[in-house]
From TrEMBL:
A Pfam family the protein falls into: Coprogen_oxidas
Family annotation (Gene3D superfamilies): Coproporphyrinogen III oxidase, aerobic (3.40.1500.10)
Family in the record: Belongs to the aerobic coproporphyrinogen-III oxidase family.
Protein's recorded name: coproporphyrinogen oxidase
GO biological process annotation, one example: protoporphyrinogen IX biosynthetic process
UniProt pathway annotation: Porphyrin-containing compound metabolism; protoporphyrin-IX biosynthesis; protoporphyrinogen-IX from coproporphyrinogen-III (O2 route): step 1/1
InterPro entries recorded: Coprogen_oxidase_aer, Coprogen_oxidase_aer_sf
Ranges of compositional bias, category Low complexity: 35-45
Enzyme class: oxidoreductase
GO molecular-function term, one example from the UniProt record: coproporphyrinogen oxidase activity
EC number per UniProt: 1.3.3.3
Length: 410
């Protein structure tokens, strides 16, 4: 009984928090309509409703019903739309990537497969294993960076795959329309995908040439995930410290055969493009003896399937173009002076990559850039000697002459 007598006093203390229609009784709750805090209290909107909380005060021997008015959103919150990266991740979980998959996923699959094949063959040549570094980007994508340092054959070798998702602002779309008229300039933003395989091999032996390779794919996508615009780019080029004509001829011949399978005009066109792109303009010399280079191959060139087939042929031609050269030169004798010349030529390689290469500049300009992967192409060692000039008539001087006047090798 004592507890029952205390019930009215407790209710009196709680009464400011109790709805006027509710008292210490066991009758059903009286329903009332409440609006969200963003609407007038007398609104007839059907978004309001009552939250009833029934408290049974067993210790007091009575039951009290309380009705609280909570501010609620006028409409259910909308979840963010899935990004292109989210949609692609779902596709890769749900199905095997095949010929009916989006090109961006097929390209990603292809370059990852080729990375494994190339790394395995380079490990066979060198005798040591690559360090494999897998990484992810916070907004989707990521990559696999494989690096071999201080091996038996290679002072430094890097083979990296990078996959990037992002969004182009209106200004970025306008800038890209200079080369890609299919981009819609009226869009405020556009999701994009970029994927590529990049490789640079720097051998110990100055008689063995450095080699560079890059093949990449870029695509913009509409909100439903379908392609809005696409293009391929890439190439491969040879950079010797000591020139063996037969090596340059073999390298170019292999690339020409890969190009000729698709278009007889490709090799001469892309060889010229390479000679004009890989140039240290401040020294008036090319970086090496060339190869092929191209960019922005899109639907104005030919259809997507045939362009992808061309990219596949070029990338698959790398091992036949280079492995015979490295196996022939990696164990040749050399002098300290010849090693010193290699270091100077590597300095010129660094100059091009840091001063003129568009890919390096693009990568480093992006927020959250993975610097180690971008600068993977730089040699482990290099040197710069003040006012150094090779002796007239020497092998070193002949290399410089060829770099100043590129040759037709095949």
């Amino acid at each position: 009984m004592a507890s029952r007598q205390r019930c009215p006093r407790l209710l009196a203390q709680l009464r400011p928090r109790v709805s006027p229609a509710s008292h210490c009784r066991t009758t059903p709750i009286r329903r009332a309509r409440y609006s969200s805090s963003s609407e007038p209290k007398n609104s007839s909107s059907n978004t309001g409703f009552t939250i009833g909380i029934i408290l049974t005060a067993t210790a007091l021997g009575c039951a009290a019903t309380f009705a609280y008015k909570y501010p609620l959103p006028a409409r259910p919150a909308r979840l963010d739309e899935p990004t292109l990266a989210d949609k692609d991740a779902l596709k890769k979980r749900e199905a095997v990537i095949g010929n009916d998959s989006p090109m961006r996923l097929r390209m990603e699959k292809f370059i990852k497969e080729q990375q494994q094949i190339i790394v395995k063959e380079l490990e066979r040549v060198d005798g040591k294993k690559f360090q494999v570094d897998e990484w992810e980007r916070p907004n989707g994508g990521g990559g696999i960076t494989c690096v071999l340092q201080e091996g038996n054959t290679f002072e430094k070798a890097g083979v990296g795959v990078s996959v990037v998702y992002g969004s182009l602002p209106k200004a970025g779309i306008a800038a890209m329309r200079a080369n890609h008229k299919s981009l819609d300039p009226n869009l405020e933003s556009l999701e994009f995908f970029a994927a590529g395989l990049s490789m640079v091999l720097h051998p110990w032996n100055p008689m063995a040439p450095t080699v560079h390779l890059n093949y990449r794919y870029f695509e913009t996508a509409l909100p439903d995930g379908t392609s809005q615009a696409w293009w391929f780019g890439g190439g491969s080029d040879l950079t010797p410290s000591y020139l063996f004509d037969e090596d340059a001829i073999h390298f170019h011949k292999t690339l020409k055969e890969a190009c000729d399978k698709h278009d007889k005009e490709y090799y001469p066109r892309f060889k010229k493009w390479c000679d004009e792109y890989f140039v240290n303009t401040h020294r008036n010399e090319t970086r090496g003896v060339g190869g092929i280079f191209f960019d922005d191959l899109d639907e104005t060139e030919r259809d997507q399937e045939n362009t992808f087939a061309f990219i596949q042929s070029c990338l698959k031609s790398f091992l036949p173009s280079y492995i015979p050269l490295i196996e022939k030169r990696k164990d040749m004798p050399f002098t300290e002076a010849e090693k010193a010349w290699q270091q100077i030529r590597r300095g010129r390689y660094v100059e091009f990559n840091l001063l003129h290469d568009r890919g390096t500049a693009f990568g480093l300009s992006k927020p959250g850039a993975r610097v180690e992967s971008i600068l993977m192409s730089l040699p482990l060692t290099a040197s710069w000697k003040y006012m150094h000039e090779p002796k007239a008539g020497s092998r070193e001087a002949r290399l410089v002459e060829v770099l100043q006047q590129p040759k037709e090798w095949v």
